[in-house]
Design goal:
The complex is a heterodimer of chains A (338) and B (442). By secondary structure, chain A is an alpha/beta fold. Chain A contains 12 helices and 14 strands. The radius of gyration of chain A is 19 Å and the shape is globular. With 442 residues, chain B is of the alpha/beta class. Classes of the chains: A alpha/beta (338), B alpha/beta (442).
Chain lengths: 338, 442
């Protein structure tokens, strides 16, 4: 085991896979010589060569399209889109092509592409460096969609994603790269070395796709979340004096409805939290699944804690970010006696 | 048609499908071409790849020439200022001394402003900044060659356009500060200025997206029978995006009155221009590829940039078609305050850049030919320095992110739509409740 922050854990996942599998190639803007603007691919070009860790033109549509072609011809590309906010030029290639190649060719062609992309706010990135567009992709049939909340999961899930034969969109909450974040920007940052999930095996291991994790057992209510909000939720529940069971979804598609619903049946109360905007957000899907499966066990209406339905504003970052105060409001509603 | 997939490692998901040859060993002799980068850290600067033409050497065709007859303009390099600081050749724009001094003033102000705002970012007063060091002639000379009615679609490194168009420094600084006088009402990262009154379009923050929008603006001008034109700026790195190609195609198809400016400053963060497609042929040559005029110009030569822009503007205004201008320059500073170029390029690169510094070159020309002196230059620098100081002093009275008056967070919910829908009204009310919830206040 080693101490790793999320950047190092992701780097280690790709290092392991480049070393194990000659078909794995990395590609993206500034990822090669420079090692990526967030340093996630640092040192990998030096170690594996410029033909396996490719710098690319600034053309997300081109990156995804070329990755598809390379994958069809026997490679296993891991493409980085520098910010999730920049993924949209690749949208047609992802949704119309990557997601449906297997289906339209009846399985004769497929493209095992992993697309990594940093998402989320809390770094003063304004409207073009803060978005969480996961729901845009969970709505597309044929894509697997992941978002880890800690270094251990980040590495294990990325390895599993690369090994998976289906396309995977892998969101990296950039606010978590260097440490967990409990939602209070005034507090000094704490490093991953203070967190048990900063302990990461150096070699190969997988965190399976389609498995949620109960990161904290509890009796009062269930909080279903993923990414940065897992940590904010835990802090908010603890501040509110609630014994919350916190489910880290991790794998949005495929979704582990069993783990989530089992927890909600047990507690009878549920808050769903994500950083992305509320309307048609992934929380709406989670809420529907829980309502369909757990209706008769619910003691109160399910509540959502989300970003507002506006672009991510530069000056009002902390009024926008789903704060512990927003959780407190949801807790009050969901904890009302039935 | 099922081939066993290459993988022998992961037996539990047995692969099948695809058509690729099985790859079981590390590739030994890859044949993929990778564009070379001339000088990485620790290496000597090398600009031998750069195709230069002598000042004055490139012919200047009539503005109504057919694009197919001027392919050479996209491969040569239009230059006016020579090494002796004289203005030579057919592109000499013959601007009067007063106009040249205005150009020098705008370039200097841009540089001093940049330098000060960079330091303000370093001391934590603003969150982010991007300098245009070494590229000042591009924005300033081009803006001065256009008319006030022409619509400008700047990129994020074109602050010289805003300065030359006369946008008050205080307004620009208030945008950087996201304060109560911020034209973007706190919604945008620093440097994403706009001014509807001065016809400076809102900067997106996403790359290349505005290049084809400028073509649409120009198409509308043509539809309405107006003679204003549009001008847009893009970096050579961003020209890899499909938007660039959409722009050229639509400009060519509709012969739109637009000037498409590609600022080739050699670097896209850490990535050399070869990776944007500059290795095999000039960026300007993409113009003729689409059937529009392409001109390659020394971007650090104020006179050449002005002359080429004026030529393209006249051409657009008489309906002779769009022009793609490649401005060859060098990004002397970091990409942004989040970047550190010492990690990926030779340390003293800019000192060896063969096209020199745009301000020094115009200054030397003015001293030789237009009665400018070192003394006048010094006092101009002092004057502009004082102007930036006074503007900053005024700007911070409207608030900073840390203290002073603050924008009303209610503004976050406005302008998503013209009229606020009920769900946003509810969310705004919820935010009020959150903010008055004292337990969660700092």
């Amino acid at each position: 085991m080693a101490q790793m922050n999320m950047t190092q854990a992701l780097n280690s996942a790709m290092d392991v896979m480049l070393g194990r599998d000659p078909a794995v190639v990395l590609m993206g803007e500034d990822i090669g010589y420079f090692g990526g603007v967030f340093r996630v691919t640092d040192g990998l070009q030096r170690k594996y060569g410029a033909h396996r860790v490719l710098d690319t033109p600034i053309a997300e549509g081109g990156i995804v399209a070329a990755a598809i072609g390379m994958a069809v011809n026997g490679l296993r590309p891991v493409a980085e889109i520098q910010f999730a906010d920049y993924i949209y030029p690749g949208f047609d290639q992802i949704t119309s092509e990557l997601a449906r190649l297997r289906y339209r060719s009846a399985g004769d062609f497929y493209a095992p592409v992993t697309i990594r992309t940093p998402c989320g706010g809390g770094i003063r990135g304004g409207q073009t460096h803060s978005q969480s567009p996961e729901a845009v992709f969970t709505h597309v049939c044929g894509l697997k969609v992941l978002m880890p909340s800690n270094p251990y999961d980040a590495k294990g899930l990325l390895i599993a994603a690369i090994e998976d034969d289906d396309p995977v969109i892998f969101f990296e909450p950039k606010r978590l790269y260097n440490g967990p974040f409990d939602g209070d920007p005034a507090k000094p940052a704490s490093p991953w070395s203070t967190h048990p999930k900063g302990e990461v095996p150096e070699g190969h291991y997988r965190v399976p796709l389609g498995k949620a994790e109960i990161v904290r057992p509890g009796r009062d209510l269930t909080i279903v979340s993923y990414g940065t909000m897992v940590h904010v939720a835990a802090a908010a529940a603890s501040a509110a004096g609630l014994d919350a069971e916190i489910v880290d979804v991790r794998s949005l598609v495929p979704l582990d409805a069993d783990t989530i619903c089992e927890s909600v049946r047990k507690t009878g109360r549920c808050v769903i939290a994500h950083e992305a905007t509320r309307f048609s957000g992934f929380g709406a899907e989670l809420l529907s699944v829980i309502q369909e499966e757990c209706f008769w066990d619910l003691q109160a209406p399910i509540q959502r804690v989300t970003g507002w339905d506006t672009p991510y504003p530069h000056a009002f970052e902390w009024e926008y970010f789903p704060s512990p105060a927003r959780f407190a409001t949801a807790f009050r509603t969901v904890m009302e006696p039935a | 048609m099922n081939f066993p997939y290459y993988s022998v490692w992961f037996n539990e998901n047995q692969h099948s499908g695809g058509h690729g040859r099985k790859l079981t060993n590390m590739p030994r002799s890859p044949r993929l071409h990778l564009p070379p980068t001339p000088a990485r850290p620790g290496e000597s600067p090398d600009f031998s790849y750069l195709q230069l033409s002598p000042a004055g050497a490139v012919p200047r065709p009539d503005v109504n020439v057919r694009a197919r007859d001027i392919g050479y303009l996209s491969l040569e390099l239009v230059r006016v200022l020579d090494d002796a600081h004289d203005a030579v050749g057919p592109w000499h724009p013959h601007l009067d001394a007063a106009e040249l001094q205005v150009g020098l003033r705008h370039m200097l102000l841009t540089r001093i402003y940049d330098d000060r705002m960079q330091r303000n970012q370093r001391s934590g007063k603003i969150t982010f900044y991007m300098r245009s060091l070494g590229e000042e002639a591009v924005s300033v000379a081009q803006c001065m060659a256009l008319r006030p009615g022409d619509m400008l679609f700047p990129s994020y490194r074109n602050q010289g356009l805003h300065i030359a168009r006369g946008l008050p420094l205080v307004d620009m600084m208030c945008q950087l500060l996201s304060n109560t006088r911020d034209m973007c009402k706190g919604r945008q990262l620093p440097v994403m200025y706009h001014s509807a009154a001065q016809r400076l379009f809102s900067i997106s923050g996403n790359l290349a997206t505005q290049f084809p929008q400028a073509v649409g603006w120009a198409m509308a001008a043509a539809i309405k029978g107006e003679d204003d034109l549009a001008a847009a700026w893009i970096g050579e790195g961003s020209s890899a995006e499909a938007d660039f190609h959409h722009a050229l195609l639509f400009a060519a198809v509709y012969q739109a009155p637009v000037i498409l400016n590609l600022v080739n400053n050699q670097w896209a963060i850490s990535t050399f221009q070869g990776y944007a497609g500059g290795e095999q042929r000039s960026f300007a040559a993409r113009g003729p590829g689409y059937g529009i005029a392409g001109v390659r110009v020394d971007g650090n030569d104020f006179l050449a940039v002005h002359a080429v822009t004026q030529w393209a503007a006249e051409r657009a205004r008489i309906g002779a078609g769009p022009t793609l201008i490649e401005l060859v320059t060098y990004r002397a500073a970091a990409h942004s305050t989040s970047d550190d170029p010492s990690r990926y390029r030779a340390k003293d690169d800019y000192a060896h850049w063969p096209l020199g510094d745009p301000i020094e070159r115009l200054k030397a020309h003015l001293i030789k030919h237009a009665g400018w002196t070192e003394e006048r230059h010094r006092s101009l620098v002092e004057e502009l320095d004082a102007q930036v100081t006074a503007s900053w002093k005024e700007a911070v009275t409207h608030g900073t992110l840390a203290d002073g008056p603050r924008l009303d967070p209610d503004l976050m919910f406005e302008d998503v739509f013209k009229v606020m829908p009920p769900n946003l009204e509810r969310q705004r009310a919820a935010m009020h409740a959150e903010r008055s919830d004292a337990r969660w206040r700092k």
